[in-house]
Design goal:
Elements: E1 48-50, E2 57-66, H1 68-80, E3 95-101, E4 107-110
Antiparallel strand pairs: 1-2, 2-3, 3-4
The structure holds zinc ion.
């Protein structure tokens, strides 16, 4: 009965942040100065964040979009190296990955800034 339920949310360790009382004066969807916007640059998959908007911690939702660079490479390969035409689309880092909060859906950032 005292054992935690499987699947229950584990307590997140504070990352060196001082234990500060939470004030309820800040309006919703305003970035808090206590929580910087997570840096998701270079991340091609979901990353663990603390959302600066709703303060929830969790993995980001990612949306993968083909970048314009991929289309340029694709067209160049079509003319100069036909077997490589689709190769840019097999390289995850070529995609533009948009990270958003899974709770409040606010956009956190993209993998290429
Ligand atoms: Zn959020």
């Amino acid at each position: 009965m005292q054992a935690p339920q499987p699947g229950s949310y584990p307590a997140q360790p504070h990352m060196g942040a001082p234990h500060m009382p939470v004030t309820h004066q800040a309006p919703a969807y305003q970035p808090s100065p206590q929580i910087p916007v997570p840096n998701v640059a270079g991340a091609t998959g979901p990353v663990q964040i603390v959302c600066p908007y709703c303060k929830a911690s969790g993995m980001t939702n990612t949306v993968k979009q083909a970048s314009s660079m991929q289309w340029i490479i694709c067209v160049l390969c079509f003319f100069f190296c036909f077997p490589c035409t689709c190769s840019p689309f097999y390289i995850p880092s070529c995609y533009k990955i948009t990270h958003s909060c899974q709770f409040c859906k606010s956009q956190i950032g993209t993998n290429n800034k």
